[in-house]
Amino acid sequence: MENIILEMRGITKTFPGVKALDSVNLKVREGEIHALVGENGAGKSTLMKVLSGVYPFGSYDGDILFNGETVAFSGITDSEEKGIIIIHQELALVPLLSIAENLFLGNENVENGVINWPKTYARTQTLLEMVGLKESPSTLLGQLGVGKQQLVEIAKALAKDVKLLILDEPTSALQENDSAKLLDLLLEFKAQGISSILITHKLNEISRVADSITVIRDGASVSTLDCHAQSISEEDIIRDMVGRDMANRYPQRESHLGKILMEVSSWNVWHPEALDRQMIHDIAFNVRAGEIVGIAGLMGSGRTELAMSLFGQSYGKNIQGEVRLRGESADLSSVPKAIKSGLAYVTEDRKELGLILEETIQINTTLANLDRVSSRGVINENIERQVSEDYRQALNIRTPSVFQKVMNLSGGNQQKVVLSKWLYSQPDVLILDEPTRGIDVGAKFEIYNIINQLADDGKGVVMISSEMPELLGMCDRIYVMNEGRFVGELDQADASQEKIMSMIVKA
Amino acid sequence: MATTKETTSTVQSAPSVTHYLKTHVRDYGMLIALVVIMGMFEFLTDGTLMRPVNLTNLFLQNSYIIIMAIGMLLVIVAGHIDLSVGSVAGFIGALAAVMSVNYDLPTILVVPVCLVVGLIIGGLQGYWIAYWKIPAFIVTLAGMLVFRGLTLALLEGQSVGPFPKSFQLLSTGFIPDVFGVGRPNVTALVLGVLAASAIVFLAARSRAQSLKYGIQDEPFSFFLVKNALIAAAIIYLSYLLSTYRGLPNVLITMAVLIAIYTFITNSTTIGRRIYALGGNVKAAKLSGINTERLTFLTFANMGMLAALAGLIFAARLNTATPKAGFAFELDVIAAVFIGGASMTGGVGKVIGAVIGAFIMGVMNNGMSILGIGIDWQQVIKGLVLLAAVVFDVYNKQKAR
Ligand SMILES: Nc1ncnc2c1ncn2[C@@H]1O[C@H](COP(=O)(O)OP(=O)(O)OP(=O)(O)O)[C@@H](O)[C@H]1O
Ligand SMILES: [Mg+2]
């Protein structure tokens, strides 16, 4: 029998009105990669917060044994001292500090009370190389996209003396090849004897790296699977996660294409600060009624910048080009105008740009279309409540009521609230930026159904996604984007992952 | 799906009073604190605090702080701060004095002109903050200096007064007894009973509605006791006031303002959007909210309320002095934070700010009656502010 590095026994954690964990058990062997899976809101993040002392000893029931001894952490510093490092689902970095400063925040390279900068930069350089991030250590963190920030988080964990590394959905914001690099990294750690717990909704990653799997459903651990003792298919995991079989990952749809709804031509955008840097070059594309159009591309290829510059010029300066909606030239110069013209944009960064975290589900749901639940400027709260309740049920947002603060929802459920908000704005063209980031397989299927429904209703959908299988499974047409340009266009029939990649590489 | 339903029902089937109170301490904590503080001073001052004369004074003394606290609440919820309100109030008082005393202009003209000037002052400051993105702290700090200086200039360093009778009514006037009894003032009693019934009626209606949608977690017994107490308190206060000179005009002004702004913050799209803006500007902007215009309006509104407060204060003193409004902003801001607003914006209630202002007011008044010097009054007020915010933060952390 190998060493058990971590054992969590009968962990129970309740929040006012919600039992998030109900005597959950978890056993991690030394030097293994242990996958923790479950639907959105199942309690994975909560369990890890209990483990790392974010929820201190005493605020939960149950025991935690680390290396055989019972531990009682009263804060995250206690657990870090033991070598338990957690990388949270929601990033925790300081945007105005440089990468190097972020990496060693609270863990500075100090000599006689003074920070040794050359050493800090040198170490940062090696750590960045380890995680495969090509940025200068002095780059401000805020200038990086979410994906790159995630890599910085991982590098930050490496800067400490880590025995058990917990990664809460580390790859949800990453490109496939970057995810692969990260998983290789985990395998490397494993070779060095570092154990890790990996939370992910991407099941293919699990079959690639995991040694064992614990499945959590509705706050209880339902099974632990040993990947070496038995052969485990993704279907097996899904069955345990959702409690039923799922035949298809992508719902079938027969597309009925109508007239062109939105047509963008010679769209050019410059960087908001560095005014001589052109971010979007001469892009042209169109979306038909009833069509789902995908935009594929690598991280940093400018997809989000394109979407946000279209949506009320929320990104960039000196924007030039024309947008025609239903054949007529449209004025999209501000967000209210864009919304009025029938555009909606579901952001990839829900926490920063999508939600008012301190407010309830109800308030977030109607925010982009308050006029629809009010007359003469007075909100009818009953209608509002009904509307948000309807979306809660339609999208299956796991929470007791629409009065729950969005802050208290699990990541995936937060994403559904953002979706609700934009569905309720009743757009003609919906731009979705990574709409299923951090969402479990079952919920993904539900969201795909909603997207399909929108298309069936004659709306146009633009879908930006880093998950190529998702684009291939959902879209009628896919544009391929690279470095601010569209470098190709593929119909569903002849699109494939290889073709997309080769277009990107050739460009 | 099934599990979601289950949790929903377990939450709602057991609304025990203690559990409810525990999860809502933040909502009721300051009200309870106010009652406790009043009880304490009532005891310490041998009943002087609640004597009709003193009670009337209490309202008159604090009306301008309360009026400004309402505006400040919106500013703070929007994620800003306004340091200039004291100076603006003083400046408007001076302006009113110059207009009424030096130029003999009629009150009916002076009051609206002053309010508009306040609106413009607030708008000017809001313009820099909203459209130029200059931090409110800096813009209003500048405003504080500018209007303090302008007050001095306008009054030429002298006090100007007295005001004509019609102007004094703004503060020292009372609602006459239409029933002709005089003492007790029956109008005051009737209005008190009406206000109490309106509050109970509205509470019952909103409860019935939320029951219909199955989302009521307030236990019925709690609801009953709470509303009975509130109604009783209002009627009792109006009875006390009726045995003196009845309801002061400012009390009515205040009550109307509180009602209007409570409605705006709770039920209108503008109110909702201000909270959204304070909660997360970027997300609000991307949701199609015109954040700049809202910020601008919030400050314009603050300027107008500061002007109103300035008028009432001048009317109460019956002269405009160069020092009028000095350091008011501190009491106002303290009241809003005692009332539970958050420094980072997005959180806070009108009624909380009003309660916060009353807590400050009762302490000022009570300590003055007790003969505690201004030095120790400051110390105690400072500690109370700190304690209130610590209480808030503590509760927030416990809720995790
Ligand atoms: N502070 C809180 N207050 C109230 N409820 C909470 C709080 N934090 C989490 N919850 C609830 O606990 C449950 C578990 O949440 P958790 O974040 O652990 O889910 P998760 O498994 O990580 O989901 P996801 O895959 O979406 O990230 C959810 O129902 C969530 O709404
Ligand atoms: Mg999670």
TrEMBL record, chain A:
Protein name: Xylose ABC transporter ATP-binding protein
Membrane topology according to the record: Peripheral membrane protein
GO CC field: plasma membrane
Keywords: ATP-binding, Cell membrane, Membrane, Nucleotide-binding, Repeat, Sugar transport, Translocase, Transport
All copies of domain ABC transporter, residue ranges: 6-243, 264-506
GO molecular function: ATP binding; ATP hydrolysis activity
PROSITE patterns: ABC_TRANSPORTER_1, ABC_TRANSPORTER_2
Tree of life domain: Bacteria
InterPro entries: AAA+_ATPase (IPR003593), ABC_carbohydrate_import_ATPase (IPR050107), ABC_transporter-like_ATP-bd (IPR003439), ABC_transporter-like_CS (IPR017871), L-arabinose_ABC_transporter (IPR053466), P-loop_NTPase (IPR027417)
Matching NCBIfam families: GguA
Alphabetized Pfam families for the sequence: ABC_tran
Primary location recorded for the protein, binned into one broad class: membrane
Thylakoid among keywords: no
Species in which this protein is naturally found: Marinomonas profundimaris
Keyword Nucleotide-binding: yes
SMART domains from the UniProt entry: AAA
Subcellular location: Cell membrane
From TrEMBL, chain B:
Keyword Kinase in annotation: no
Subcellular location: Cell inner membrane
Recorded topology in the membrane: Multi-pass membrane protein
Entry's Gene Ontology molecular function annotations: transmembrane transporter activity
Keyword terms of this UniProt record: Cell inner membrane, Cell membrane, Membrane, Sugar transport, Transmembrane, Transmembrane helix, Transport
InterPro entries: ABC_transp_permease (IPR001851)
Predominant cellular place of this UniProt entry's protein: membrane
GO cellular component assignments: plasma membrane
Transmembrane segments: 28-45, 66-99, 105-124, 136-155, 186-204, 224-241, 294-314
Coiled coil: none
PANTHER family: ABC TRANSPORTER PERMEASE PROTEIN YPHD-RELATED-RELATED, XYLOSE TRANSPORT SYSTEM PERMEASE PROTEIN XYLH
Family: Belongs to the binding-protein-dependent transport system permease family. AraH/RbsC subfamily.
Annotated function: Part of the binding-protein-dependent transport system for D-xylose. Probably responsible for the translocation of the substrate across the membrane.
Record protein name field: Xylose transport system permease protein XylH
Species the sequence originates in: Marinomonas profundimaris
